[in-house]
Amino acid sequence: MTTSAEHLSLETPLVDVPESSSSYTGSAVPPSSSAPSPSEVYPMFSHHKFMREGDLVIMQLTREVMQPVVIQSGEVIQNRYGMYHHSDLIGVPFGSRVASANGKGFVWMLRPTPELWTLALPHRTQILYVADISYILAELNVRPGSIVVEAGTGSGSMSHSVARAIAPHGFLHSFEFHQPRAEKAKAEFEDHGMSSLVRCRHRNVCKDGFELENVADAVFLDLPAPWEAIKSAKAALKNDKITRICCFSPCIEQVLRTVTMLSSEGFSDISMSECLLRQHEVNPQIALPPVGSVTKKLEDQEVKKEARRRHQIEAALSKKRKVAATSLPGSPASGGVPQVSSGADENGEGTGEAQDGKEEVDQELIDHLMTQENAPAREKDGRRQVAQPVRKRRGDPVPYGMNLSRPAIDARGHTSYLTFATLFPTGLRPGDRSDDAEEDAEGDVEMEADGRSDALNKALASMTEEQVEKMMDPKTDGHAELISGLASKVAASAV
């Protein structure tokens, strides 16, 4: 993930550099003898390669579990994956896989970014995630140098992304209603080197407003009742350029009231969006099996199938012989007189089946066995037997497949509705020119009416009595020509 460190200018430091300073400890600044580098001025989004004492590092334990850590000599981290000494982490490149002290576990040490901080930060409130944040910044047209107003600091997830987007010369005015959360967020921004970009204040903007006028390029409201802060937001937005506003509301009833207030305050292009993110697990290694292995696999299956079929037929014939032997009337088991077997004719001569010592295979039995050969479940001892899956051992080759990707099992659902609106410069907003336009229209009508009356009087005065009588007499055929001539005179005099 790229950062905004390359946008930071060495000639215009983001913080004041004192005359004397100790060695770099994350929040400290270097001596003033040399210009500060972006990594020293802005440690949260630094681009130096190796971890140093005082650096903020994101420790990734699992794919979903991350933990923020500040490197300090002598400290030790203990978790379910082992023990890690901070002294061993100093000088290690960001993004390295670090083994535990006993070598049985490992973790990944990642460079902090707003996206990773969103996943690792201590939650003080419900936060915004990357899907909503990226869409909001794009719709608000936030760029380096922008002035943004945020109501509802919360855990600071949105604030970190805005700070990176507006660096190095922009500014974020952030307001929080809850005083303990505001103090924690302010301390967090200072620790991350963002004091020159973000100012967090404790204030109830719905009641007291922002106390900002004509300064902001964009406003973001994450409030329970955003419609109560629309007027203050309108006053804070610049009135000489096109500006944008976004309201983050979880309920559709909040959206309806917000849209009504935005429309009444002269905002345009009002729209509502919902941003959902679906993650996919992608298999980057797509290896097709060779033709020879597929052919051999099919041949092995046919051999096993034929062997199984023969075994089933032999077992069925053996069972049939036992049943036939015990069911004969002359057999010892039946206790009767010996009778002619089914393998002899009426004269007692054996048939070909009895003479050869072979039995004819029952075709219906074979068909039945072939039909039941691949049945998923069989009856054994009165209980249904279900085929068990084959267990895979570690080291076994991954079976070939054509699934390039699949959706993740756990997906985040609805978060909130995003309501966007545009505020045009003064004079171009709906309703700004309505009164002036009506006055101008009335004045134009009066001027035009007066002009036509004077011109008509002049035209009539220039006509003779005979022309006027002829024009007023409907029986004459020339009144149309007179009227057209009068109209041309009126038009000429009006000009």
TrEMBL record:
One of the entry's Gene Ontology molecular-function terms is:
tRNA (adenine(58)-N1)-methyltransferase activity
Kindly indicate whether the keyword Nucleotide-binding belongs to this entry: no
Location of the region described as Disordered in the Swiss-Prot/TrEMBL record: 1-38, 296-358, 371-407, 428-453
Pfam families recorded for this chain? Answer: GCD14
Which biological process, per GO, is one annotated for this protein? tRNA methylation
Name the keywords, alphabetized: Methyltransferase, Nucleus, S-adenosyl-L-methionine, Transferase, tRNA processing
GO terms for cellular component = nucleus; tRNA (m1A) methyltransferase complex
Q: Where does the tRNA (adenine(58)-N(1))-methyltransferase catalytic subunit TRM61 C-terminal domain start and stop, copy by copy?
A: 105-316
Superkingdom per UniProt? Eukaryota
SUPFAM superfamilies assigned: S-adenosyl-L-methionine-dependent methyltransferases
Q: Enumerate the PROSITE patterns for this protein.
A: SAM_TRM61 (PS51620)
Quote the protein name from its UniProt record: tRNA (adenine(58)-N(1))-methyltransferase catalytic subunit TRM61
Q: Which organism is it from?
A: Phaffia rhodozyma (Yeast)
